[in-house]
Amino acid sequence: MKTAVITTGGLGTRLLTCTKANPKTMLPLYDKPFDNNNEPLLRPLIEIIFENLYDHGFRRFCIIVGTKTKNSVLQHMNPDMEFIKLLKKRNNQYDNRFVKALSKFYKKINKCDVSWISQNTPMGFGHALLAAKKFVGKNTFLLHAGDAYFPKYDFLPYFIKSHKKNNVSGTILLQHKKSLKGYGIAQIKKSYSYNIVFRVEEKPKKPLSNLAILPVYILEPIIFDALEKTKLGYNKELQVTDAIGTVMSWNHKIAAFNIKNKPWFDIGTTRQYYKALTYSYKQSIK
After folding, report:
1. Under a CB-based contact definition with an 8 Å cutoff, are residues 152 and 259 in contact?
2. What is the dihedral of CA 61, 62, 68, 74, to 10 degrees?
């Protein structure tokens, strides 16, 4: 699997005023030092997501950006060799660390096909995904929300393998949660060698299960047909969860992949961002 869609076009209103000119995905998190120096790196979430997907074989990226915040993402992701030259001229130990880290990042960017799509008015996760239809084409692809922080992606090879093995139209990432507020919910049942999804709901008032849908999916292109046939849902927006329901109504199978107790963070609120920042720092100094 080579194709990934990353959505970063939301307004991020719960993190204002920080997100007025920068999307949530540009918020910094700690990462392990690039070399033997004990000082951890600070990297924007979009860079962490990109590098982890790259390291697992992805080479085609469609990044959905908002028109008001796209410049900050573009400026960070586009290789800036003049900045590298400036750091090299300064020739101090801290700048040399950053030169190595940025050079490695730029090499990966240059080996990829990256497409940028501007979303003028955010109208939901599904609306953002629909903009990537032409780029995805007939390819199986991974959909990743730009505000979801996974400290480790060791689940990803198994996630991809299970989708291929089960021959389904989509595989959704799930996790048992005590507090289900703000999550899409899935109900599953055992079918042959995998768990099959038989019902999904976007942020229901009365959840019918404790299985939360996490914002990383593997999907077949039929999802775009479903998005075009799906009515606006929660918050009067087009939701991926509802489109997955449409796919299932067409008698296509959707599989479930439970990552159990693996940590991850939705950085959409100040409290969650603080938790992600604290966790990333502890991991970076281990």
Report:
1. no
2. 30
For residue 190, list its beta bridge partners: 195
pLDDT tens readout for residues 10-52: 666 666 766 677 788 899 999 987 666 678 889 999 999 999 9
Tokens of 110: 């240059």
Q: Tell me the whole-structure pTM to 2 decimals.
A: 0.93
Separation CA 109–CA 19 (nearest Å): 25
Token look-up 């586009």 returns 78
CB 148 within 8 A of CB 178: no
Domains and CATH numbers, the chain: 3-119+267-284 (3.90.550.10), 168-262 (3.90.550.10)
Nearest residue to 242 via CA among 277, 201, 278: 201
The torsion angles phi and psi of 107, rounded to 5 degrees, stand at -60, -40
For 138-192, the pLDDT digits (tens) are: 999 999 999 999 999 999 999 999 999 999 999 999 999 988 888 899 999 987 7
By CB atoms closer than 10 A (0-12, 13-18, 19+), residue 6 is: buried
